[in-house]
């Protein structure tokens, strides 16, 4: 991990990791066991630890682009946070929102179309920003829905990482096959991408125009490209560790930003 102002403590990452995979390496899957050996935490770990800190007792939480899961790889933590908050509303224009059994309210609409009398304390966008085609309208809607002092958490891919660059250069009909081969994704979880708000500069600029200030930000090294292939995963982590020792940012990375409404 490099270049970060995230307020995520190592103990918080360890807690998230152990909640997902257990504390005993002998009972972990081979992927978590290898990552543990390299002391590497995934971008998901950082996102989940950040959201866990920001979900306070009784708060109103809006999850944008919810899909089927709050945290696809950490249902236990999702259940804990759903119990902690006052209400969790999931908004997504795709029909997969109907499969989400943890949100208190399901809304099958885009964020631009969503109307609510609530002012939300926390809004999360997990791997949703890359699909936004009109960032101005989307962030204007977030400003309308977020209370003063409330926070918006954006977790998304970096536009300039290798995989997003390749994705932009290939037809959408080719996107699912590599996802299925590398990460065993289902076809219904592959969506068109726009990458119109996928740099730190763009996020700060757009959120700033609508009364938000960036309070936390991190570039999260992402060593999951070959996470489903044992040998390649080890090579990927060896490259990551070598670059890290030279203070060189790993080329494949995600963005995690927290924006507070003034």
Question: Could you explain how this protein is built, in words?
Answer:
This protein is α/β, with parallel strands linked by helices and 262 residues long. It has 9 helices and 8 strands. It has one domain: Rossmann fold (3-Layer(aba) Sandwich). Helix 1 (10-21) packs across helix 3 (43-54) and helix 2 (30-38) packs parallel to helix 9. The model is unreliable at 179-183 (pLDDT under 50).
| Structural class label | alpha/beta
Q: Provide the β-strand percentage band.
A: 15-25%
- Placed side by side, the strands forming the largest sheet appear as 1-7-8-6-5-2-3-4
Helix-strand topology string? EHHHEHEEEHEHHHEHE
Number of helices, counting only DSSP H or I runs of 4 residues or more: 9
Helix content: 25-40%
| Largest sheet entry | 8 strands, mixed
CATH fold-level assignment:
Rossmann fold
| Alpha-carbon distance between the two ends | 29 Å
Integer average pLDDT: 90
Number of strand segments: 8
CATH architecture: 3-Layer(aba) Sandwich
What are the low-pLDDT stretches, counting only 5+ consecutive residues below 50?
179-183
Full CATH superfamily name: Vaccinia Virus protein VP39
Taken together, the total number of domains comes to: 1
Radius of gyration from CA coordinates: 18 Å
Please identify the top-level CATH class. Answer: Alpha Beta
Q: Report the principal-axis shape.
A: globular
